[in-house]
Amino acid sequence: MSTPDFSCVITAGEGGEEALAASLESVLEQSMRAVEAVVVLPSGAPAALRAAAGTQAGRFPDRVRVLDPGTDRAASLRNTGLDAARGTYVLVLDAGERLQRHACRNLWEAGTRTRADLVAGRWSRLTGDGTKEREPSWQQPLFARSRTVARFTEAPELAVRDALLTGFCVRRAALERHALRYDEDLTHSAVLFGPLVAAAVGRIALVRRRIVSGRAAPDAGRDLAGLVEAHRRVCHVLVAQGLAGLREERDRAFLLDHLVPLVRTFPERPAAARERIAATAARVLPDVVPEPVLLTLPPVERVGIRLLERGDADGVLTAAYALRRRGAVAAPLSLKDDGRVYWHGGPDPVLDVTGLGHQYRPFGELRLMNRVTRYEAHGSRVLLAGRLVLPSHTGPDPDGPLTARLEFRVRDGSRTFRASVDSLRPDATGISWSTGLDVTRLLRPFGPRDTVWDARMVVEDGRTSSVSDLFAPHDLVGPGDRSPARPRLGRTTGDTWQPYITLRDHLALRLEARHRPARTARRLVHYATHFRPARRLRLALRALGRRRDRLHARGFKTAVYRSWLLRLPARKGSVVFESHMGTCYGDSPRAVHEEVRARGLRLRPVWAYADSTEGFPTDARLVRRWSWRYLWALARAEYWVDNQGFPQNLDKPSGTTYLQTWHGSAYKRMGFDETRVRLQNTPQRERLQQAVQRFDHFLVRSEHDERTLARAYRLPERTLLRTGYPRNDVLLAARARDEAEGRLPRPALAAELGLPDHRKVVLYAPTFRGGPGRRKRQRLLLDAARFAERFGDRYTLLVRAHYLEAASLPACPPGTVVDVSRHHDVSELLALTDVLVTDYSSIMFDYALLDRPIVLFAPDLDAYAAERGSYFDLREKAPGPVTATEEELFAVLERLKTADTGFPERRAAFAEEFGAYDRGDAARAVVDTVFARHVTPSRTVPTGEAGR
């Protein structure tokens, strides 16, 4: 081969010949042919590894070279490879790392096009047990698009994170010009080499493609001192480049990427390894990371690092349990007079865990860590001991009878065996316990199916109970702790109880076959279920299962609905109601249904629900969405009523009237005005058009709705009902009641939610920010914990997530933050709310009818409007202050009366523009119009041009 374009240096080491073969194969199979492999062997390489390398060099003499520099240092091996490289670009791989098929071509093309000295791309590493791999999450923003930077200061993440551990190549001329080498006195020299190269060279190209996969999972515990020293030197590089400001970001990344994962692995490590790592940490970590950086981490993460820094191996193990089981109280907590809560060992700002909110939960609601400290098996007799952690602010009733029992539950939860705990010794920080039990006599499984049993403890004080799983380090039990087993179906189904620690660090028992009769029986059972007739039977059963599942598939149901169910005659007076795709009993469909019920109309209501029937009316027939009963009801209904849209692929029967109440006026672009819809293909747009063509009546509440929603969904004039929204009738009634009688007493819902009269109610209701897909739990833009800390004595915050999402709320003082996302009817919430905080949600159009303060919290207003599009300038027409930051929002709430002074007129104009047709009798008008043949009309609403 002439001078190659690429030299790939492979340092052989861990993983043996298989890892070397995988790396070499990935180099030789590159789609770019002018690539050479330089294999550098350590002096201690075994004969098999040398033979494997030699074989490859013999097969590809022009493309594979093998070097033996006579050293074992990884940095020296890499430097030897750099010196021997002949390619224009040089890339270094550790054994086991694999290049993607087009990696070299992608790097070469980017380097040639941009004349960059350094070209870097994505890489992935192994996780867990090594069977899976993934890219570090911080790579996504760094490599979101291919780009070129003149200096690495334009992409500081290259040094802030360990982005240049692998997956990059360097122009060989640049290596020689700047004399770039791996530091041979540094064990983690790869951590430093990448930032050194980035700081020295000029232009840098970043490609969005993955370059390397199969990088070994990091283990900071193996050489913590070397890792810390490498981090120090990277920080020195940043300072030398005049980037001292990035030092804090680098320090924080080092904590999150290396030390927090190290703490998390403590339960899996033997006790000796935990002690060794803690001792090393106590020697090398002090003064490595400034305390202000440490304080930016979440509470449990910073506690674990502080205890690691102190060399407290047992404390780090406890913090690891808390990290691996979020929400668990893993260590004694002390509540100080100022209300701050500290981890055991405080007061220390780093050990302040007030933000976890444990102090707000009573004894029975806390998830307390119960750590097993002793497990000894003597035949069938097992001695167990442990300690249940108690925080200082709560615990079992000291005057009550304190009892505890162990429970062993089969993994599917169908059966439980219980045994009383012999000894309980409570003190100020916990309850020490010990017991002895006959496992053989206590646990009597059947044998074949119930082989795994989880252990937990229940502590009771006569009034409340606390249930806790039994935690333990993975080296607490082993093969020497086995006990005999006696299954009900005989010992041929299993004869030994083997204790083990699960992946979630819980104690469990597994029924095993250790002796010959049980092993023989299991082999016979395995043969009987795996020989050819059994396999055929299993395949036949699976085929039957697939056919059964097909009967419940939506595609099959849709076909049956269209082919057969639509032929059924309509059932006179049958009305199918649905609100927000079956997620709630609320909104305008509820108002219409209650109007029908109040007037005693002879209609047959059917309500569709998505998951649970809780909260739905008991006097209506309930059908689960997409069930066969749901399809039957839709096919035979005389009326459809919903606010979102029945499934698009279900045609409306010819004799059915479809009332679409809709779910809100539009700020963001909707329907065919949406960019997402305009970019869809023709069949997708046609499906949407066919879906909206099913509407016979569409409710609007203003001319704005006619200009936006009606036009965006291409609705004919005759379908528009200018009644306003039935759901808003209660809001106009509430406003009239406020003006006549005042705000107090509050509606009955306030007492159900536990809202005190002396606090004002703030409802936070953000808009939907996701896309099509399953319901997801979202982190709110508003920090509820900060709100509670600042305004908890004056306001109660109600949080209402969008019906397609769920809110993730921190623990807060009782009565300060209440999640009302599952409450069925938002109009009831609006009626008792004093202040609405929202962003772009249509809820602001409804709330304006109450003439109460509205504050818009829109940190991403410009970006959101640019991405989704909008029908008007929100700042220009806003019915209240528009805030861009949390501090601005808090400042408005702090002086709410003053801040709202200039907005009553704007709010009235807002309500008039967007709710002109809301007059408080929409439900009656809709019922009179849509169900006209069933009632004596009191107000029939004209449609089409006659309604203008």
Provide an overview of this structure.
The protein has 948 residues and is an alpha/beta fold. It is 35% helix and 21% strand. The strands form seven sheets. Strands 15, 16, 17, 18, 19, 20, 21, 22, 23, 24 and 25 form an eleven-stranded mixed beta sheet that branches. α1 (16-28) packs parallel to α2, α9 packs antiparallel against α10 (247-264) and α10 packs across α13 (299-310).
Form type: globular
Tell me how many strands there are.
Answer: 40
Extract low-pLDDT stretches: 771-775
* Alpha-beta classification: alpha/beta
Strand content: 15-25%
Number of helices: 34
Radius of gyration: 34 Å
Oligomer: single chain
Percent of residues in helical segments?
25-40%
Mean pLDDT: 90
Distance between the termini: 84 Å
Largest sheet: 11 strands, mixed
What is the structure about, briefly put?
By secondary structure, this protein is of the alpha/beta class.
Key structural traits:
single chain; 948 residues; alpha/beta; eleven-stranded mixed β-sheet; ten-stranded mixed β-sheet; 34 helices; 40 strands; 35% helix; 21% strand
SSE layout:
Layout (H helix, E strand, L loop, with lengths): L5 E6 L4 H13 L6 E6 L6 H13 L4 E4 L6 H11 L4 E6 L3 E2 L3 H12 L3 E10 L4 E3 L4 H4 L4 E3 L7 H4 L7 E4 H6 L11 H12 L3 E12 L8 H17 L6 H18 L6 H14 L6 H4 L4 H12 L2 H12 L3 E2 L3 E3 L5 E3 L23 E2 L1 E9 L2 E9 L13 E8 L5 E5 L2 E4 L3 E9 H4 L9 E9 L4 E7 L11 E2 L11 E6 L5 E6 L3 H15 L1 H20 L2 H10 L10 E5 L8 H12 L5 E6 L11 E4 L3 H9 L2 E4 L14 E4 L14 H4 L3 H11 L4 E3 L3 H10 L7 E2 L7 H13 L6 H6 L6 E6 L10 E4 L4 H8 L3 E5 L5 E4 L8 E3 L6 H7 L2 E4 L4 H5 L6 E4 L3 H8 L5 H4 L4 E2 L2 H9 L1 H4 L4 H11 L7 H9 L18
